[in-house]
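Example record used in the benchmark description.
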Amino acid sequence: MGLISGTSADGIDVARVRIDGTGAVALERFDLVPLPEAVRTVLFELFAGHGEVRDAARMHVLVGELFADAAGPFLDGAHLVASHGQTIFHQPVATEFCGHPVRCTWQLGDGCILAARTGLPVVSDFRVADMAVGGEGAPLVPYADVRLFSHPELWRVALNIGGIANLTWLPPLASGQAPRAFDTGPGNALLDAVTRLRTGQPYDANGDLAAQGQSDATLLARLLEHPYFQRRGARSTGREDFGLPLAHSILEQAGGRTTPDLLATLAALTAETVARGLEELPRVDEIYVAGGGAHNRTLISMLSNRLSKPVHPLADLGINVDAREAVAFALMGDATMRGEPSNVPTATGARGPAILGKISLPPKS
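Model output (C-alpha cells):
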C-alpha cells in the first residue's frame, strides 16, 4: 500500500499495488480520502510558519492516525504500508542555523502509529536518506517512473502537476542515458491559494474561472523573476517558495485585476515554467501528465499551446492520473524492505544510491 498527502493537502491518496514475482506492477485499487477541514486549516498555518512546535508535534500524531484510518479499507491481504506522510517544511538548500549550514525536510505522520494501527510493517520518512548523501530529497517519484513508463525507443517525460510541478525525463531503455528529474516550480499551489483567498472555494474546478480571464503579461513577467527559475539541474522547491505568503503578495499587487485574470496569469506561470523545464532536455517525443493539474483544462490547454505538441493523460499508460505518487511510494517501500536503493541520483543530486525510509514494525501479538 502507498499513501501520500501532497503539497495541495486536499486528502490522502491511497493505492493498493500488487507486485508479482517477475516485478510486474498492477494498481488494484485507489482512493482519495479527504482531510478534515480543521486539519487542513492547521496544516496551512504550519506551511506558512505560523504554528507552534506543539501544533506540529500533535499533527505528527494525528496525521499518522488519519493515514491509518484511510488505509483501513485496503488492509485485507496487504503485507506492507509505505507512507510518504504530509510535508510541512522542505529546505533543500543549506541555510546557516546556529552557525552551521543545515538542509532539512519534515514529513508528518508517525510510522509507529501506522504500524500499530495496521498491524503491518511501515516504511515512512523517505526523503531524509537522500538528503543525507547530498541530495535534495526530491523528486523521488522518478524511481517508479523509470520502472513503469520507460519505452524501448521513445524519449518520454512523465509530468506531475500537484501543488508543485515536477517532471521526469525518461530516455529510451537502450540509449544508456540516465534519467533526469526536477521541480519546475508552482503547479496548483498558487492557483489554489488565490482561489481560496478570492472566492472561498478550495480550487478552480477544471480551470473554469481561469478560462474566463486573460493572462497579464506585466504580472507574469514579474513572477518569472523569482530566483528559483534561475536554477538548473537537480532542484526542488515547495510551499516555502510558492505558498500562501507569495499568494498574499500577488493579491497585494493585483490592483484592479479580476480573479479570472489572476488565475489565468498563474496558470500561464505554471505552463511557462514547465515549458522552460522541458526546453532544458535534449529530446522529448511524448509528454504524459498526472496530478490534480491534469484536470485543469485551461492549464493543460495553455501548456499544449506553449509546447506546440499534445500533452497526454498518464492514464494512457495504464496509471490513474491521481494515483501516480501513491503507487510510486508503494514501490519505494517494497525496495526498502528488500534492501535496495530507490533514489535516482541524477534526479535529486545525491552523491550516490540510498535506501530510503525508516522501518516501523508492528507490536508483537
